[in-house]
Each structure stands twice: as structure tokens, then as C-alpha cells.
Amino acid sequence: MPHNAIQHEYAPLPQRVRAGLEAGFAKLSEVDEFMDELPQTSPRPLDNDGDEEHLGDVTVTHRPADAPGDGETVRWHYVEAGPSDGPVVVFLHGVPDSWWQWHYALEAFGSEYRCLAIDLKGYGQSEKGTGDFRQEGVAVQLEALLEQLQIERFSLITHDRGTPVGDHLVALMGDRVLRYGRGQQHLWHLSPDLHPQQAMFTSPDAPSMLADAGRFVATAYLLLTERRVKVSDLARTVQEFSYEGISTAVPRYFNSSSFRQEWIERRTRLIPRWKCPVLLLQGADDPLQPREFYTDPDVLAQLPRGAACTSSTRATSGRSKSRRK
Predict the structure, then answer these.
(1) Are 68 and 80 in contact (CB under 8 A)?
(2) Model's pTM, two decimal places?
């Protein structure tokens, strides 16, 4: 190793977390029973520009957009809600999701904020062709989309695999990102036992696994949620994950990088460039994101359980300060 190379040491895995992982994987035996609760679904017809859906008292409008990327253009799909002159909040989803992951947030925020929930490249109704699927590359393309939409400054909320893209976007756009609600992804510490999906998504069998959208969604939500999600919400999630091309597009992200590479990039290149307050959002008992990795009192806070979290997150997204490590 060169004398000036930096060694990045994995964090030891707490015993509590090992027990939680074992309990989580034991749920795999329940997948077939869980799937019996899901109705048979097929992809929804593609939405046209201006199509509307109603989420409680909030109306969301579907929008397509072609923005620069991959040497030509990238087709994006997003939904928007809220007043056109309101503070802007951008939402990036994870796997196996789409803009729909945020429908409760849109319902909660859409009366006060201008909300943009984007189907990431490779998901939902956005671009699925070959191209640049590096997290950094997709962030550059998202910046081009936001430029085209004339979004000057905004708060960003991410979840799961939307977060590595968000990490690059926050570093790339500097002062234009007002606040970053960073959800459900490793930050400064990492253990290889916590990302078995790297091998799963880079396997030659990944496209066929993802093509069975119902089973994949049921498995993911059974493993990763404490409480059962409404069947109607899961059915829509399956529909949004069933569009042609998703099963081959999503693995391109994992073949373009690795969890270790992302972790090193955060520590060496990205976190030093973040200029906004950052709120880390994750479950206190989540075995995949150990709370033991966050021991600094400056980065620890407890949000109330359940619906009250929405109001706390609204404050962070809009007008209050949060802290980051």
C-alpha cells in the first residue's frame, strides 16, 4: 500500500444487530403467505402530462420532462404538488419504489410546500435505457433536470438507494440545497455484513429476480418494515415496479459502484462538501442501520413514533435547523 494511502476500517457489528438480522431473515418463510394478500396487478398505463391524482385534500400532477444527460436527453417522470410559489422540497425514493413511496409525505406537505417527487432513472416511468448509472452521473443528470425546471433552491429528502444519489447532489449543488433529510443509508461507519444486497443485485440472476415484481416487493417490505404496510399501498408499489425495463435498469446502479466505494467517497469527497444542515432519518431499532454507529450527542435526536414524525420532519424540511456529524 502506498505510504500516503488512507485505510478505511469497517466498524464492528454489535451483537444486538446480529440478533436483529437473524430475526429479520427468519421472516422469509412468511413471503408466500404475505403474497397471498396481494391482488394480481399489472403496470398502470403511462401517465400523460397534467394527469392528476388526489391524495386526501392534496392534488398531485404527473409531469414528464426531457433533460440533458447521457450525451443526449434523459426522460424523467415526476409528480408535483403544492403551491407553485411555496418552498421547494425534492424527494428521492429507494428500492423497490417510485414517487409513490412519498404519497403520504405529499399529502402532509402539499398544502404548504411545492413538492417534487421524482422517479429516479431506471424506475417507475423514467428513463430505463443504457447510459450512465453511476450515482454521481445520475446526480449530474438530476441537476440538469432541476435547472430545466428552474428550481433555484430546495430542501432534499431521500430514502434508501436514493440517498447515495442525494449525497452527490448535495455535494454538487452546494448552497442551493437548503436542508438535507438523509434517510435509511449508511453514513460514516459501515460493516460488510450490512450490505448483502450488493451480491444479490450484481448476480446474473438479478433481472429475473426483479422481474417478479410482486415477490420482490413483498420480500423487501416484509424484511424491512416493523409493521405491515397497507395492502393497497403495496399493490400500487408493485404496479410502479412492474414497468418494462426496470428489472434490467436497476442492477446497473450496483454494477457501477459498490457499498464500499460509496462509503469511501462519502468520507473523502462528499461530506466535506456538504454545506447545509443534515438530518439523519432512520429507525432506532433498525438492524441494518445500527444506532451504535451514531454516538455523538450532536447528531442524536429522537423523533416521536408514528404520525407525529410527519410534523417533526415538516419543521426540519422547512424552517428549523438540524445537525450533522
Answers:
(1) no
(2) 0.91
Cβ atoms 81, 53 nearer than 8 A: no
Contact call for residues 98 and 84 (beta carbons, < 8 A): no
Separation of alpha carbons 259 and 325, rounded Å = 20
- The predicted pLDDT at position 195 comes to 86
237-240 contacts, C-beta under 8 A, 24 or more apart = 237/96, 237/97, 237/98, 237/100, 237/101, 238/38, 238/41, 238/213, 238/214, 239/41, 239/42, 239/43, 239/44, 240/43, 240/44, 240/97, 240/98, 240/99, 240/100, 240/123, 240/124
Other Cβ atoms less than 10 A from the Cβ of 44: the count is 14
Distance CA(105)–CA(103), nearest Å, equals 5
Grid coordinates of 211: 422481474
| pLDDT number for residue 297 | 57
CA distance 268 to 271: 7
CB 218 within 8 A of CB 234: yes
> Measured between alpha carbons, how far is 28 from 153 in angstroms, rounded to an integer?
43
Using 50 as the pLDDT threshold, list the residues of the chain that sit under it: 1-3, 307-325
Q: Is the dihedral of CA 234, 240, 242, 247 positive or negative?
A: negative
Q: Tell me: the pLDDT tens digits for 34-90?
A: 899 999 888 999 999 999 999 999 999 999 999 999 889 999 999 999 999 999 999
279-315 tens-digit pLDDT: 988 887 887 888 888 776 555 555 555 544 444 444 4
Phi, psi of 117 (to 5 degrees): -105, 115
The Cα–Cα gap between 52 and 60 comes to 6
| Residue extents of the structural domains in the chain | 22-318
Could you tell me the end-to-end alpha-carbon distance of the chain, in angstroms, rounded to an integer?
A: 29
CATH class of residue range 22-318? alpha beta
Q: 217, exposed or middle or buried, with CB in 10 Å at 0-12, 13-18, 19+? A: buried
Instruction: Give just the sign of the alpha carbon dihedral 164, 168, 171, 175.
Output: negative
User: pLDDT value at position 300?
Assistant: 58
